[in-house]
């Protein structure tokens, strides 16, 4: 049975208008429950507070990237409120410290500049120095991308920040996650991963700036990479107690469009608040996957609205061959940092 709630209908319709996605693209995808995994008790209207109600995270350690704003901040706030020790990363120590100091609970600020692979390694080393297993790792931070082509050290910027930076961080932290009795890794994806990607899903001939796409396709490609990373990682972790899953938070009014033109930001700011999820609702899916007992042991799934789903149509979300190829290419692109 296709899942098409009123909220999702409004969301997709609005996304089409805002992102110039054609009706044909929307009609070509069907969202259905992924019957391989148990269906949860929450839906699109759930909040991060609601999905963690009654869950005691005392004694658990979590890491959330991009803790200083938006979904990352709300995720950190809720996890800390439930008793977890939350390591919050920001692009600067000042940003991370300010965010961590503003929430109740036990938090530790750490620097992470995702465009700099050495920063990702140093971040992992700082976490290792704490000497505790990592029970939750939420790869939340990201950017929407620039219209013009920008290359950082030979790699297209959006792909480097949204995907490869987390690829380096997560791989360097895997021993800590595997040391936890029930380590959970959550990767932030997006519906753009199937609504706006180049032909073939990942254009391996564009990753070093050989050619450029529009900002939406660059963003969609990077988010598909996050989801495929989770898929391949779940296979690698199969013989361990650790799990890896990807989530789409839904349309949330955050500052992710800060690099867009002023007119777009103005329209976005007027329209989105009426149709978007609140920050608490947007953070619900990643917090649910990271903490809830119903998700224990679930790995390799893709979640929307707090439930594992399969997306049919012209999509590469579940393409294991593409995921394996991306992994090998990523190892080459990140050199000795992994």
Write a brief caption for the model.
With 338 residues, the protein is an alpha/beta fold. Helix content is 43%, strand content 14%.
Gap between N and C termini, in Å?
A: 42 Å
Radius of gyration: 18 Å
Q: How are helices and strands ordered from N to C?
A: HHEHEHEHEHEEEHEHHEHHEEH
Number of DSSP-assigned strands = 11
- Uncertain stretches of 5 or more adjacent residues: 9-25
Number of helical elements: 12
**Which strand order do you get reading across the main beta sheet?**
1-11-10-9-8-5-2-3-4
**Percent of residues in helical segments?**
40-55%
Specify the biggest β-sheet. Answer: 9 strands, mixed
Helix/strand/pairing class, anyone? alpha/beta
Could you tell me the mean pLDDT?
A: 89
What fraction of residues sit in β-strands?
A: 5-15%
What coarse outline follows from CA principal-axis ratios? globular
Q: What does this 3D model show about the protein?
A:
By secondary structure, this protein is α/β, with parallel strands linked by helices. 43% of the residues lie in helices and 14% in strands. The protein is built from twelve helices and eleven strands. The strands form two sheets. The chain has a nine-stranded mixed beta sheet with strand order 1-11-10-9-8-5-2-3-4, with helices on both faces. Strand 6 and strand 7 (155-156) form a beta hairpin. Helix 1 runs antiparallel to helix 10 (262-275), helix 6 (117-128) runs parallel beside helix 7 (157-178) and helix 9 crosses helix 12. The longest helix has 22 residues, at 157-178. It is globular. The chain starts with 5 loop residues before the first helix and ends in a 5-residue tail after the last helix. The relative contact order is 0.18.
